[in-house]
């Protein structure tokens, strides 16, 4: 099989897939089910492409050694029929799963709706897992919020100091003060600017972490 033929078949496959998704997307107004299907399909394709890219550089040794009872967040993929699919928390059933192990066995968890009875094949775990996760995330949320508040105060203080030093240096430049004194002021300004830059980066990282925690809090509440 020639390379040109292989590329052509690949192009046809990609075009066919795109057309199928478009048909679902364009028909969502007439069929609400198609809207859900199109959303799930595009979501699955986006994630699968990301996994394929990461697979090249993925190193299992970068993961922790999971133990039985650990709670992990897994993507079970696009469900077929009555299979579980999508993002779920799950309980690890392996006993001391080694880092180099290619697979890990888990039991998916799902939330229980108030108006839904527990099926005979299901096990109700109560609210303990949710409560512990929620307590943990709320604690981290509070800690990050306090940290951000302090960083913003420090950032505002440093910005005021930088403005003051610029005015001071401009005034000093007009006088006969020695160059040594001028250089001392410039060095002090440089130190403040460096600290302000570090504070801004730390503030950016903290806000990003806070967004992640807030997202987790929303997810476990669903």
Question: How would you portray this structure in words?
Answer:
This protein has 222 residues and is mostly helical. It is built from 4 helices and 3 strands. The chain has helices at residues 3-26, 32-57, 128-173, 179-221; strands at residues 71-75, 87-92, 106-108. Helix 1 (3-26) packs antiparallel against helix 2 (32-57) and helix 3 (128-173) packs antiparallel against helix 4.
Topology:
Blueprint: H1 3-26, H2 32-57, E1 71-75, E2 87-92, E3 106-108, H3 128-173, H4 179-221
Antiparallel strand pairs: 1-2, 2-3
Helix pairs in contact: 1-2, 3-4
Describe the structure in brief:
This protein has three domains: 1-58; 59-110, no CATH class; 128-221, Helix Hairpins, CATH 1.10.287. The protein is built from four helices and three strands, in the order H-H-E-E-E-H-H. It has helices at residues 3-26, 32-57, 128-173, 179-221, and strands at residues 71-75, 87-92, 106-108.
List keywords for this structure.
222 residues, mainly alpha, Helix Hairpins, 3-stranded antiparallel β-sheet, elongated
Q: What is the count of β-strands?
A: 3
Mean pLDDT: 79
Main beta sheet: 3 strands, antiparallel
Radius of gyration: 28 Å
- Name the helix and strand elements from N-terminus to C-terminus, one letter apiece: HHEEEHH
The quaternary structure here is: single chain
Parts with pLDDT < 50 across at least 5 consecutive residues: none
CATH topology of the largest domain: Helix Hairpins
Which structural class should the secondary elements be placed in?
A: mainly alpha
So what's the overall shape? elongated
Number of domains: 3
**Tally of alpha and pi helices:** 4
Going across the biggest sheet, name each strand in turn. Answer: 1-2-3
Distance between the termini: 50 Å
